[in-house]
Specification:
With 387 residues, the chain is of the alpha/beta class. It contains eleven helices and 17 strands. Strands 1-2-3-6-10-11 form a six-stranded mixed beta sheet, sandwiched between helices. It has a five-stranded mixed beta sheet with strand order 8-7-15-12-9.
């Protein structure tokens, strides 16, 4: 089995194992694709074909084709226009380190310096790639992979009909394996303002718009999202959706759709890849405790470079709040939103549509200190109360 096929199988297996944790429509859809693999000579196009036997003698069985593809926030665009995952490199290095050192570390009372060095280098590589990525990188990766596979939908369905030979009904599912790194998020929704767990991957409004615009519900029956960080755990977040009315499907499952207003929103497409960043790892050992450190250098970093992305995202966040939308921010954006948001009455543009400065009504030092204290209750205590 090729590495590609092995990774596809691994994702499908995780999705099927998640069935016991699911409810409602998601559970029904994952149960459907949990049938036996249908025997065929050509094991591609679509990637998997599962057989679901009839529920009664008056019904026909179903062949469900499953086409898998990966979407990665840690991605880059090649000169030929193709989008490639750089998160895969992190995964491969992780497994290489694990396989190389596992037995020696298990047998030894002392972890070898070279093993610690390998782990430190992997952490540094991960941080560098995260910094050279952005929300729009993720979105472009999503769009590229979706477009690429939708081009072949007719071929998938034709092959399913040939396999069926008229004996079975046929259906098609897209299995979208999502790897993302969205850290230090704040969610703004009907529950209040709160911080999710670090492995939480929001379903973004932009993703839903793309699915609604591009997926033909007469050709694709189901969309299955398998979501996690660069290194998926054994229990990624799995959501199954019938096509046709995706928003209603998510609403029934009480899944919230979010707009994005993080500080990396200012970087368009793959622009963040060009950032002039170096990350050097270090570590120290004290008894049985290992501490990792990172020497981070951003050569473009100056006061203006820091504040521009935050103000750009802040303007978006204020607009989403005014419109009553659900949205996601990163720490810096949320802090300014809740501390200064009520005092902003307008914006001045400087040289570019993305270079913005807020215009404030007067406020006192006491007002500011009070707002900061209220924000700290959320940041340090995890309060779900609105400010």
């Amino acid at each position: 089995m090729s590495d590609k096929k092995s990774n596809e199988q691994l994702c499908l297996d995780k999705v099927i194992r998640s069935k016991k944790l699911l409810h409602g429509e998601s559970k029904k859809i994952i149960t459907k694709i949990s049938g036996s693999e249908f025997e065929r000579k050509d094991m591609e196009r679509p990637d998997f074909v599962r057989y679901l036997p009839p529920a009664s003698k008056h019904e026909r069985g179903i062949l469900i084709g499953i086409e898998h593809f990966r979407v990665d926030r840690l991605s880059l665009q090649k000169k030929n226009g193709k989008v490639a995952s750089t998160g895969i490199e992190i995964e491969k290095n992780f497994h290489r380190i694990y396989e190389h050192w596992y037995e020696e570390v298990r047998r030894s009372e002392v972890i070898p310096d070279d093993a610690i060095s390998d782990i430190a280098n992997l952490i540094a590589l991960q941080i560098e790639k995260e910094e050279k990525s952005s929300y729009n990188t993720f979105l472009k990766s999503f769009q590229y992979s979706l477009d690429k596979h939708l081009e072949n939908v007719d071929a998938y369905r034709t092959n399913l009909r040939k396999l069926s030979g008229g004996k079975y009904n046929t259906e098609l599912a897209l299995l979208i394996e999502i790897h993302s790194e969205f850290r230090n998020l704040f969610l703004n929704d009907p529950k209040g303002i709160y911080r999710p767990k670090n492995d939480f991957t929001p379903i973004f409004e932009d993703m839903i718009r793309l699915l609604e615009e591009k997926v033909n519900c007469h050709k694709v029956n189901y969309i299955i999202l398998c979501m996690g960080r660069t290194l998926h755990t054994e229990n990624p977040t799995v959501v199954g959706i019938r096509t046709g009315d995706i928003r209603k499907q998510l609403e029934k499952q009480k899944i919230i759709i979010y707009e994005y207003a993080g500080k990396d929103l200012i970087f368009s497409d793959f622009q963040a890849v060009q950032r002039n960043i170096t990350v050097e790892p270090s570590y120290s050992i004290s008894g049985d405790k290992i501490s990792f450190g990172i020497n981070y250098l951003d050569k473009d970093r100056n006061e203006q470079f820091i504040i521009n992305p935050i103000f750009y995202a802040l303007k978006q966040a204020l607009e989403y709040r005014r419109q009553g939308k659900n949205f996601v921010t990163t720490f810096e954006t949320q802090m300014l939103l809740d501390v200064l948001g009520n005092y902003i009455i307008g914006w001045e543009k400087k040289d570019s549509e993305k270079i913005l400065f807020p215009v404030f009504i007067p406020f006192t030092r006491e007002d500011l200190l009070y707002k900061i204290q209220e924000f700290e209750k959320i940041f340090y205590e995890g309060s779900r109360e609105k400010l």
